[in-house]
Specification:
Elements lengths: L15 E2 L27 E3 L1 E3 L6 E3 L5 E4 H10 L5 E8 L6 E6 L12 E4 L13 E6 L4 H6 L1
Parallel strand pairs: 2-6
Antiparallel strand pairs: 1-3, 4-5, 5-7, 6-7, 8-9
Length: 150
């Protein structure tokens, strides 16, 4: 199994895209794209530029969403099988270039919680949809057995 640690370069002053939403304005939480499930909704997704900056091919956006230029998604699809990731077309206001939202399909529960340092969302966090999920992981240790089995 290959592990990928993909991060945008935050030092270049890249643009920051807003939370994705449907045409009617209903927002979609970024965690929807990290559940390991194909996106089966027919509605077109949209977003806008939240903070101006350098237009880049890969960036993080509102609610933890990853936006990727379609030309870069084609490259990813050439090296990563389509049962591991999906690109969902998204329209960006004022941008003629095609972008997609990265939807991760290959989720492996491999955090060694006994050796990691982390916090999890609770009821008092005010985000009921996040209860039980990791809130922050300052020290992450992977369970080698879980990774090897994946």
């Amino acid at each position: 199994m290959s592990l990928f640690d993909v991060r945008p370069d935050d030092s270049i002053g890249a643009w920051f895209l807003d939370t994705p939403h449907y045409e009617n304005g209903e927002e979609i939480l970024g965690l929807e794209f990290r559940r390991g499930q194909r996106w089966d909704r027919e509605k077109r997704l949209r977003t806008s530029v939240y903070s101006e900056g350098v237009r880049v091919s890969f960036c993080r956006g509102g609610r933890g969403t990853f936006y990727i230029a379609s030309h870069l998604m084609r490259v990813l699809r050439s090296v990563i099988s389509d049962d591991r990731l999906e690109g969902i077309p998204v329209e960006i206001s004022g941008c003629s270039e095609e972008y997609e939202i990265l939807n991760v399909l290959d989720i492996v529960d491999c955090v060694d919680e006994d050796r990691s340092e982390f916090g999890k969302w609770t009821e008092s966090g005010g985000r009921p949809e996040m209860i039980g999920r990791y809130r922050g992981i300052p020290k992450m240790v992977l369970d080698g057995g879980a990774v090897a089995r994946a």
